[in-house]
Amino acid sequence: MIVQSAPSGLPRFVIEQVDHARTCGQLARAFGNSEFKSPVPRDLVIYVVEHHDEGWAAIDSRCEQSPDTGLPYHLTETPLPYLIQTSQGSPDFNEAYHPFCGLLSSMHTYGLYNGRYGLSDFIFIDKIPPEYKPAADAMLIRELERQNRLKEILRSDPVSMPWVEDQALLDNYKLLQFFDTLALYFQTTHPESRTKGRFLNVPDGKGRDHTISISPRSDETYVLTPWVFATATLEIFVEGRYIAPQPPGTNLKVLFESTPKQKQFYRLTQG
Predict the structure, then answer these.
(1) Which of 65, 78, 113, 183 is positioned for an S-S bond with 23, CB 3.0–4.6 A?
(2) What's the pLDDT tens digit per position in 128-137?
(3) SS3 for 115?
(4) Do residues 2 and 15 make contact, with C-beta atoms less than 8 angstroms apart?
(5) Is the four-CA dihedral 189, 194, 198, 199 of positive or negative sign?
(6) Rounded (10°) CA dihedral 174, 178, 179, 183
(7) Domain positions in the chain
């Protein structure tokens, strides 16, 4: 799950990973204008963006309590055996829908452990403790095998062959990373703590990558420059639950299921 930061003494907004991904889907549906081309194949890219964390559903449903916070485990605190399970589960889910979705989801998994295919200098696989390294390595080998297998399937069809050309595939991978990190910008941080940010390597579909900046304004809108969406402003939302830290041993699953979801809204505008 994603446990949003909050001022001391306030409950925390807790977001399931599948709900995080639905927000990413809202961004993907809105992406594209005269300067930034919509992704191709659009419907399949939107689908995988909207479901790229589906492997988390089984883990989030456990709603296990972190001994450090009294809340569900935050994304970055998830026990590694669970993380490895989700890393394979999401591509499994997406491949069942379409080979292209499985391929892009698998690339997302592999990139998270290996510096996002050179887009990041953080190599997560190097940080994994020795006792979990063999399982993580084996999972990543299976994902590379999956990618090779799905590429062959897609190359065998003249319609999907262009989708797996190196530049086209990398551009769609970069878009998934952009939608993912832009959603996390809002979802991980309380409004009082949000500051200026940058998103690197956002492709325009014309052969160039751009750095997108975001700046919060006093009217609770966020200026995005350059503008990448079809409409002059964009409002997105995410569903989650406000949960206060609980004493050790609390059945968070019961508490979570009895707490109704609420929505947070975020409004983006052109610079």
Answers:
(1) 183
(2) 999 999 999 9
(3) helix
(4) yes
(5) positive
(6) 150
(7) 2-270
Spatial separation of the C-alpha atoms in residues 221 and 235, rounded to whole Å: 9
What strands, in cross-sheet order, belong to the sheet with 221-225?
2-3, 12-15, 233-243, 262-270, 221-225, 209-216, 197-203
d(CA 147, CA 172): 15
- Looking up tokens 């300067």, which residue turns up? 35
Q: For the chain, how long is the longest CA-to-CA vector?
A: 58
Query: Is 242 in a helix, a strand, or coil?
Result: strand
| 228: nearest Cα among 207, 215, 213 | 213
Element (H, E) at 111: helix 99-113
Tokens of 251: 């059945």
Summarised one tens digit per residue, pLDDT across range 58-110 is 999 999 999 999 999 999 899 999 999 999 999 999 999 999 999 999 999 99
DSSP string covering 82-101: HHHHHHHHHHHHHHHH-HHH
Question: Residue 146, Cβ neighbours under 10 Å: how many?
Answer: 22
pLDDT at 126 over 90: no
